[in-house]
Design brief:
This protein is 43% helix and 12% strand. By secondary structure, the protein is an alpha/beta fold. The strands form two sheets. The protein has a five-stranded parallel beta sheet with strand order 2-6-1-7-8, sandwiched between helices. Strands 3-4-5 form a three-stranded antiparallel beta sheet, with helices on one face. A hairpin with a 2-residue loop joins β4 and β5. 2'-deoxycytidine-5'-monophosphate (DC) binds next to α2, α4 and α8.
Length: 252
């Protein structure tokens, strides 16, 4: 999909306060050194979190952290090592010792590039199984907090605004109708596997939604201070523009 976001280029100034930029004074009184926010993007599968978060982070010069990819990578590794997803202690130990990198559009675990391997129906299920284990969540949430501690981050997931960063400056809850989410997922070329057709995808999404919203720890839920955006009939650039206007409001 080719997107034109030329009109967002004025947000180049948001990459100010870059510790690696020798021309950046990092002076807190310098008006060019804008505050770098934590932006939490939550919502169910297929709501548009990935596309919106990626575009936002590029526009703002922020880091993009896909926390779902962390659960997926741990699920992938557990399957790879024949660790049962019912063995919470073993999966938590795996999560604790694994080096997981989820930035720059590449996902790796212990040096294995799993960017494509984690986007399959098998790993959809494994990730959902991993995500219901409290001890695994503890390990991954601690890492997510460390990754976002400095601000300047767009973090997407299910519990970012409720658990990981309850004090995030901006919380967005993206949603879309079940039919539209299934349609998007069925057309998602990054997602490979055996589910053919929207009906199969819709059934799988429904099962994961139920698991994600009814689990005991950190279920997907709308934070009271999150801005709810229904993306069913909205083009991507409209959603991005809406979120950017909320970012502007936080920075002025
Ligand atoms: O966003 P995704 O489909 O890649 O997420 C994979 C699974 O992990 C899904 O079941 C939701 C779960 N998840 C979670 O529980 N908490 C997060 N912060 C991110 C994802």
């Amino acid at each position: 999909m080719v997107l034109s976001f030329g009109s967002f280029e004025s947000f180049g100034t948001f990459s100010e306060n870059d510790p690696n930029d020798p021309n950046d004074s990092n002076d807190p009184n310098d008006p060019n050194d804008m505050k770098r926010l934590v932006i939490a993007i939550d919502g169910p599968s297929g709501a548009g979190k990935g596309t919106i978060s990626r575009t936002l982070s590029e526009t703002l010069g922020y880091r993009h952290i896909d926390t779902g990819a962390m659960y997926r990578a741990v699920g992938w590794k557990a399957l790879h090592e024949n660790i049962s997803l019912d063995d919470e202690a073993a999966v938590a130990a795996l999560a604790q010792r694994a080096a997981v990198i989820v930035e720059g559009g590449v996902v790796s675990i212990d040096g294995h590039d799993v960017t494509r391997a984690i986007r399959t129906p098998e790993i959809d299920k494994a990730a959902t199984g991993v995500a219901r284990l409290p001890r695994v969540r503890e390990v991954l949430v601690a890492r997510q907090r460390a990754l976002g501690a400095e601000g300047g981050v767009v973090m997407e997931g299910r519990d970012i605004g409720t658990v990981v960063f309850p004090n995030a400056e901006l919380k967005i809850y993206l949603d879309a109708s079940a039919e539209e989410r299934a349609r998007r997922r069925a057309n998602d070329t990054a997602h490979t596997g055996s589910q053919v057709g929207e009906a199969a995808v819709a059934a799988a999404i429904q099962a994961r939604d139920t698991a994600d919203t009814t689990r005991t720890v950190s279920p997907l839920t709308l934070a009271p201070d999150a801005v709810h955006i229904d993306t069913t009939a909205m083009p991507i650039n409209e959603v991005v523009e809406k979120v950017l206007s909320l970012v502007r409001a936080k920075l002025t």
